[in-house]
Amino acid sequence: MTATMRPNMSACPACSAAPAAEALADAAAVRNARIALSLPTIHCSACITAVEDALNAYPGVQEARVNLTMKRASIQADPDVMPDDLVRALAGIGYEAHELDAGTLSATETDKAGRELLMRLAVAGFASMNVMLLSVSVWSGAADATRDLFHWISAFITMPVIVFSGQPFYRNAWAALRHGRLNMDVPITLAIVLAVVTSLWETSLSGEHAYFDAALALTFFLLAGRYLDHRTRAIARSAAEELAALEVPRAWVLRDGQEVQVPAAQVAVGDLIRVRPGGRMPVDGVITDGVSELDRSLLTGETLPVFAEPGRDVSAGEVNLTGPLTIRATAVGEQTSLHRMADLVAIAESGRSRYTSLADKAAKLYAPGVHILSALSFVGWYLYTWDVRTALNIAAAVLIITCPCALGLAVPAVTTAASGRLFRRGMLIKHSTALERLAEVDTVVFDKTGTLTQGTPELTNLADHAASDLQIAAALAAASSHPLSRAIVTACDAADVMPAEISDIRELPGYGTQGVWQGMTVRLGRAAWVGAEARSETTAWLRIGDERPRAFIFADALRPGAAEAVRALRDAGREVILISGDTTPAVEALAKRLGIAQWMAEALPTDKVTRITRLTEQGRRVLMVGDGLNDTAALAGAHVSISPASALDAARVASDIVLLGGDLSPIPDALVTARKATRRIRENFRIATIYNIIAVPLAVAGLCSPLIAALAMSASSITVSLNALRLR
């Protein structure tokens, strides 16, 4: 076994993938709301109803709306309603909530680009049908004035539509030419413009053929491909901005002995800040007063809460669990650990964005050849016939027949088919090149807490305890919100254990819960507090009077399908690595349980990114699977990444693929599907290439009119689309 350790340093798919239209309708409301809450655990319409009812019933709340796709709530409320109050109200009905700074959520703009593409596609399709109806009359024998009339009507329909619907191609082509380069949109734009110009010329000269229908059909097919491509990534948002939104927007500062609420941006180094139980740290600092426990799982991946006492360092984003704390700020604003993590994510995202897709590689080779061939055809035919009209017609036919419509559809058609297949298996593809990158994976890196495991402790030795011990433990645990206490309550409820009658129950923050039972003091909590010897396992101790302490042992339950996924990945020849911020014993035990040879414990976010960067420099293609804030930069920096739907918003946004259910077993199948999809993409490129090899010489030889070229182009596009559907 190889291990790396660093020193200890201080759903249902249909609901989870609700229509994007819902996000469009509510995005502005979330952004403009006075209070915005992240709701990472909601997953269905019943959750929406429960959360909205609880929020709307809270005094002072005027309106509350929940968006399932974004997993957020937008609340309009009176000025005296505090976000922390609403978070506690939702916790009371079993829903986790985090306050978001609505002012930083600019990444969640309404999907204007998607609506624009869909509108232009609809206009082009409607106009194309009408012009084709007019063309049928010409093909049926209309001649002379009647034919010219139909051509002019077609021109009047086509001109405004071409100007309106083709704008996405024109803008991209102009941007490329302005910077001295070529892309796929340059030959597209030239083909459209040349088809229209040729048609207008033919119409003005009373020619027999005009190609307005060809220009419109070309635009329609290309817009269809562009919209399919857009839909595969419409959900993606900036992870760095999501992380920034998680920063606490307000803080309670102690001034002259009084607590004053101020914006977090106004907190200065040296200020004393009060953090109530359940609140998140707004800045980095050191505890000056109070004893409590800290939940660091989102930042570090540690399963268990950490004891907090004066002198301990704390980081922005950590959650105070049990007792009030006073901290002295040591880093604020852009200097906090949470903000540095956001910067790390932004850097990692920019590195991954340098990946060149198959379509981009094809465009780099294809575009110059198309232009040169069309120009040579025009020059050659003009020198041969000295007829500009003939030369222009042939040049237009060459441009249309070589127009990269099939290439434009090759990737999005396959991506859409593969995305549909994976969605039915419970996986949502977010990024346009995710499948191509997933097909190249040879190494899989897993986080532990919340990814391979469920992230919640589970009592494992219930049967070892006497009934009276369980009754006492159940009563004491019910008075605490500590994760281990909740696990005891859950286990006792499942075993129908009735809590004992205990008086004077009170919780000592950072230590545990105590009370009086039959005249004896009973305690449930930390080993040192009850006089027990600490163990390597996750343990809570029960002591009754002067009797020997009893150990309640816990384990982090495996996520469904975790063992099967790891086994299938290893059987497929991929290397599996476990990297976690949890303690060494916990990580080592899980690695042994799953048969993972390489593991790393107590890893900070920078350690995860460094390890993945090192693997990448060795030529590895890394798939990262994680769910916490401490995984976000690694998710963004990996070759491709997956996060569960239960992950925090920032982790889901940083990933390329979201696992909608709780089962990890679809991951190996996703790699197989990705390889098949990549093969289909390459097949589509070969189909387009063979088509061009056959069709281009005919066009250059003057044997294809622009209309025949458009029909051939449409046939190749349909063939590519049908080949993509084989994935389904």
From TrEMBL:
Gene3D superfamilies per record: 3.30.70.100, Calcium-transporting ATPase, cytoplasmic domain N, Calcium-transporting ATPase, cytoplasmic transduction domain A, HAD superfamily/HAD-like
Biological processes annotated in GO: copper ion homeostasis
SUPFAM superfamilies per UniProt: Calcium ATPase, transduction domain A, Calcium ATPase, transmembrane domain M, HAD-like, HMA, heavy metal-associated domain
Pfam families, per database record: E1-E2_ATPase, HMA, Hydrolase
UniProt-annotated location(s): Cell membrane
Occurrences of domain HMA (ranges): 33-98
Keyword terms of this UniProt record: ATP-binding, Cell membrane, Ion transport, Magnesium, Membrane, Metal-binding, Nucleotide-binding, Phosphoprotein, Translocase, Transmembrane, Transmembrane helix, Transport
Keyword Magnesium: yes
Family: Belongs to the cation transport ATPase (P-type) (TC 3.A.3) family. Type IB subfamily.
Entry protein name: Cu2+-exporting ATPase
Record organism: Lutimaribacter pacificus
